Structures are given as C-alpha cells and as structure tokens.
Amino acid sequence: MSTNSGDTAWLLMSSALVMLMTPGLALFYGGMVRRKNILSTIMMSFVCLGLVGLLWVLYGYSLAFGADKGGFIGGLNYIGLNNVGQAPSSVYATTVPHLAFMVFQAMFAVITVALFTGAIVERIKFSALLVFATLWLTIIYLPVAHWVWGSGGWLAKLGVLDFAGGTAGKAQGLPSGFHGCQQHTYGHPRRRDSLVRVVRV
Amino acid sequence: MMPINGADTVWILISAALVMLMTPGLALFYGGMVRRKNILSTLMMSFVCLGLVGLLWVLYGYSLAFGADKGGFIGGLNFIGLNNVGQTPSPIYATTVPQLAFMIYQAMFAVITVALITGSIVERMKFSALFVFSALWMTVVYLPVAHWVWGSGGWLAKLGVLDFAGGSVVHINAGVSALALALLLGKRRGFPTDAMEPNNIPLVVLGAGLLWFGWFGFNAGSAQTAGGLAANAFVTTNTAAAAAALTWMIISWIYRRPTILGTVTGAVAGLATVTPAAGYVTPLAAIAIGVAASIVCYYSMLLFKTKLGFDDSLDVFAVHGIGGVLGMLFVGVFASLAVNPAGANGLIAGNGAQLLKQLIGVLCVGAYAFVVTMILGKLIDITIGLRVGQSEETVGLDISQHGERAYGGLLR
Do B202 and A43 touch (CB under 8 A)? Predict the structure, then answer.
C-alpha cells in the first residue's frame, strides 16, 4: 500500500505523545516518594527512554514484530532496523512508513518498563534495575508483545483482543511489580504501605 | 501553485506547536539549574522570547529570512508585516501547506534559538540589556544566517551546505553567541569556588522531557510533509537522544555516580547533535551520532569550564555549539541519498566534498555569530551596561530585576 500522509501525521504525533508519558510518569512517581528519593525515582523512569529506546532499535522491534517463530517470538529479519524503512510494512499499519510504526511501538516498550519501577522505588540498586530492565524487556516484554500484537502471535491467533496494551503493557507490569514488592517487603514492616499501593493500582 | 495538502498542514501546525512548547521547556530546563534566587529571572529570559521574537518575526523577521533573496545574504522586504503571506502555499517553501503555517513554524525556531543563548549568561545579566540584545541579535545574526542556509538563494544553501533542522542556524549560532556573550560579561561572582547548586532538578527533568517531546516537531516537522522522511527524522531523533542519554550517564558513572542531571544533559546534547542530520542519515548512524555527541560534549564542557575557566553557566556552547558543529560534520560523513534524495551523499557513500562543504558552513556561521555578538555585546555594554550591580547579583536577579521570588515564606 502507499503511504497515507494523514495517517502518518497521526501516528508520528501519537508517538510523540506516548514518549511524553515517560517523563510524565517519572514526575508522577517522583512526587510520591520521600524527598530523599525523588531523583532516583525520576531516574528509574527517565533512563528507560535511553535504555529501551536504544535496545528497541537494535533488536527489540525485530523480536516483537519480526517474522513469526512458532507464535512465540519474532525473527531476526528486522535486527538493527534492517528492512525497516520509509515504505509501509505489508503487515502492520500498512498506510504509514514502517519506521513510524516501529517508533510508535518503541514508546510503548519504554513506558512499560518504566511503569514497573513504581513498585520498587526507594530501595532497589540502580545498577540492578538497569540489568533487570534489559533482561525483562528482552525475555518478557518482547515475547508477550509478539503473542498479542505480532502477526502470527499465539494469543492473537486465539482471538484475544488488546487494543492498546491492557495485557502487553499493563498486566505484565502488575505481577512483575507485585513480585518485586513481595521479595523486598520481608523484614521491612513499613514497606507494607507500598505493597498496598501497588495492589491498588 | 500546488494545492494545499490537509495532512501536511496538520503536521506542520502540530509541529509548530511542539516547537513552541520547547521554549517553556527550555525555561524550566535552565530555570531548575540555577540557584534559587535566580530561577524566575532565568525562566523570564527564555519565556520573554515567545513574546519578543514572536512579534518581531511577524513584523519583519520572516521577511528578512525568507523574503526575495538579496545577493544571497538576506531576504527582501516583500513579506514585511506578513504582506503577501497568506493561506495559500508559497511557491518555494513547503509548497503543500499554507504559507502562514510555514511562517509560524519558522517563527518557533527563531524564538527558541534566541532563548537558547540565555543559558550562558544567567544569574548576572541585566534584563534590560538582554532584552535589547535579543532584538538586535535576532535581527543581525539570526535572520541573515537563516537566510544563508534555508532561504531560497541563500549563499550557503547554493554552496550545497545541508542543515536539516538547524545544526548551524540554531545550535552553532546560539552556542557560539552564548560563549561570546559570556566572555564579555565575565564570570558570576564566586565562580568557580562557590558551590552553585541547582535549585530544582525535577524541574530540569520536566524541561528536558518537554524538550525531547518538542524536538520531534523540530526535526520531523522539518521534513515539511507527513511521509517517510518525517518518520526517518523522528526515528533518528529519538535514537540519538537515547544513545546520548545513556552515554552521558555512563560517563558520569565512571567518574562518580549516574546522575539524572547528566542523563538529561546527554539527551539534549544528542538531540542538538542529530538536528542537522535527522533527515539525511539512517537510524543506525544516529546511534553513532548520539554516542559521539555525549563523549565530545562532555569533555568540551570539562575543558571550557574546568580547564579554561569560562563561565558558560549552563554549558550552552559545550552542548549546543559543539553539538551543532559535530552534527553538521556528521552530515558530511553519514548523509545518504537513499534516505533523502533531496540531500546528498556523504563521505561514507563516497562523497568527501560534502564534508568540506559542511565544514565551510560551520566556520562561516560560527565566525559570523561570534564576531557580530561580540560587537553587539560591546555596544550594549558601553551604552546601557550588560551586567547587574554587585549587590543586585548577590541578592539575586529574581528580586533585583523582577521584584518577585519563586519560593515564598522563610528560607528553611
């Protein structure tokens, strides 16, 4: 299909809007912690713009939206944005440049990783968070995004509908955050507060 | 005349709004980094540009930058007061959108460029002097340079210098002028011995986030159509910013701790550096550009501030000036006709001449901005004076220049 400029304008603008959610989330979380931890909390979200933004281009997009491998994960055909150019994809968002769809999806991955940091603020080591975020993106987000949104993903084939990320973005963040909390609450009675908050969310 | 394309018009108008938002974003980015007694004056220095430049641009700025060419140096007076600038497209610029849309999009670039300069002279420059300087600088530096590079018939444009979204017009121009003005003005009292602690780093992060967001309009909007090229520029912009943010974070980690202030500064350095290249290079080249941006800008900052003792207070020259130079040269290295057939090939694609052209563009814009800013600054210094008095500086510019303070109540 040829590119539709109205759709392209809309998707690019939407990408910019989703990008702004991550600094927004950083402030949302940052304002909720004690004053001694605000910068670390902001950093946990903001760094995802750098980390996930880069990994997505290198291999993330390919594993989520590359040629299907058994319904479970995407292939390596889009690695380093190989074959992802200014012409539309034949499968995804077929009226906009493939690059526009790619970067729109990148912003989803960024904010999803940033979202779960709200569960573990005020106590996780930053280095550990960076490593965890990288691994989590790679082995949880990318497969799940493929299951639900990838062409050939097994949940998509089953007919599960997820318009904008109720499973891929939000439901993953909840158990991951919840689990992180459980592990860290033992021996820290005041942390029960943050456990309650996460469950509420 | 081409008919108006609705989607392109939407894209340029929304991009203009995005670029407009960069100036309040920059105000917060700068405002959070100064001491608490100077935050309002720092915010004001950027915000006032929305008023001042926004008005001058309509009155004569657009005409001198984009009016009928006069010898390659400046635009004519045919668009003065937006005469002949209407709802139909221009036959030359952004030919698928109303000329008014192209005009206002360009207005936002002029606004933020003037605002960018102010980061080097915070906490000590007289507001009246800055106000006069901004009006003069826009008139005799920004408008000619914008015409040279982007105007139809501009001499650097005819030479073949490529600047997609303002590496020379915006970043070198503002960065070099910021350095010149800071040199004229001198150091802040107490620099570099006193700790000059930022008053509100979360505000800096908010500003950086808004800048990153707005930069999509800045760079992807510069495609002037909503299509593949805009998507390419969008992706290179985000990718360079991501790579640069991480790189600066790692550098600051090597020396001490991974600071949020360093991470957001890195992001801005990456964004500034990729600006001239966004629509000429591939996303993978943007990774190299982002990594190089943070390394080079970081060590430039150390060199200027620590070794040479320049008080370019918020590192405008190190981040925007050096970033702009680097980005302009990277166009000469990574540019590819496969990405943008209206551009050129660079060194890697076998066209070394492009790198030379880029270097000429860098030197001419840099030299012109430096010399003219020095002259303007000197003129203002001997007439109304550039710098506030000693006691005014000590009490802070918020109270001495504006009669306000940001944080009421008792100091804790």
Answer: no
